[in-house]
Amino acid sequence: MEIPDTLIERLRKARCVAVLTGAGVSAESGVPTFRNAQTGLWARYDPGELASPAAFRANPALVWQWYAYRRSLVAAAEPNPGHIALAELERRIADFTLITQNVDGLHHRAGSQNVVELHGNLNRYRCFADDEPVELTTVPQDAPPPCPRCGGLVRPDVVWFGELLPPRAWRVAVAAARRCELFLCVGTSGVVHPAADLPLIARSAGAYTVEINIAPGALNGLLDLHLYAPSGHMLPALAAAAFGNAP
Ligand code: APR
Fold first, then answer.
1. Whose CA is nearest to atom 8 of ligand 1?
2. What order of strands is seen across the sheet that includes strand 154-158?
3. If DSSP codes are grouped into helix, strand and coil, which group holds residue 105?
């Protein structure tokens, strides 16, 4: 799909850019998305049974094993050219905020420095009782270890259904959406709020908003421009068109 010259010019001249990514940006790294009918994580598992405080209380070992499985998928994955292009854009643009719904840590591994993890990170842990961080030197595979402070359960440091987003992360994300002149929404189905509100907050604040996805979804028609192509192709092409391939 052709990239409109107007978008290339906007990116080249932009002083302030915000990007929201979803699972689609990691799909080309081999990490399953959630809602893809065939391979999606939710196609085979019920989110309510795995990604909620009630599920963890009811069956901590099952939830812990599911995250151990996802952690193994991510450990075997490498950042793809889409992640790498976003790290390059961060180096080229003065005020660049990368907001992600992903918990796989691939943006950091690609070299992005300023990453706002709205839904946490599955390689971090916290105490289920008091939400304080817990450092694990070894990570058991079959059941959560006891919290070294209180002996309670340790949980993954991710946001579960029914839980609030980390307040600071949300504040930073909304501020970036409100001040940016260009907002890119990449690889998200746009069905989970409040993350999916960010492109609309940006647009109502005057930003030019762009979706990059492989297929129309919940955001279709709501943003200024919709580009349908894999992000692992589109993002490097956009970065190269705007800034060249010079290191
Ligand atoms: N390039 C661009 N987009 C892609 C690609 C790709 N290569 N592959 C898939 N997509 C798109 C799909 O079309 C879909 O719109 O990525 C999106 C993935 O959607 P979901 O699986 O719903 O993932 P996401 O939007 O990140 O889910 C949001 O929901 O389950 C919760 O906490 C979880 O953070 C997650 C949130």
1. 24
2. 133-134, 120-127, 154-158
3. coil
For ligand 1, is residue 187 a contact (CB within 6 Å)? yes
* Ligand 1 centre distance from Cα of residue 40 (Å): 9
pLDDT > 70 in the chain, percent: 99
Q: Are residues 239 and 190 in the same domain?
A: yes
- Total domains in the fold of the chain: 2
Ligand 1 geometric centre to CA of 194 (Å): 15
Q: Indicate the helix (H) or strand (E) that contains 56.
A: helix 53-58
Report which of 52, 115, 86, 110 is spatially closest to residue 243, judged by C-alpha positions.
86
- From the list 83, 107, 108, 119, the catalytic residue is 119
Task: Give 28-78 pLDDT, tens digit per residue.
Answer: 999 999 888 777 777 778 877 899 999 999 999 999 999 999 999 999 999
Q: Which two tokens stand for residue 82?
A: 């889409």
Instruction: Supply the pLDDT for residue 46.
Output: 81
Q: Could you give the CA distance from residue 202 to residue 213 in angstroms, rounded to a whole number?
A: 18
> Is 35 contained in some domain?
no
Query: Active site includes 233?
Result: no
Q: Which residue range is the domain that position 45 belongs to? A: 40-76+127-158
Q: How far is the CA of 190 from the centre of ligand 1 (A)?
A: 8
The finding on whether 80 has its CB within 6 A of some atom of ligand 1 is no
Instruction: Assess if residue 174 is contained within a domain.
Output: yes
Q: How far apart are CA 188 and CA 209, in angstroms?
A: 14
Q: Which atom of ligand 1 is nearest to the CA of 190?
A: 25
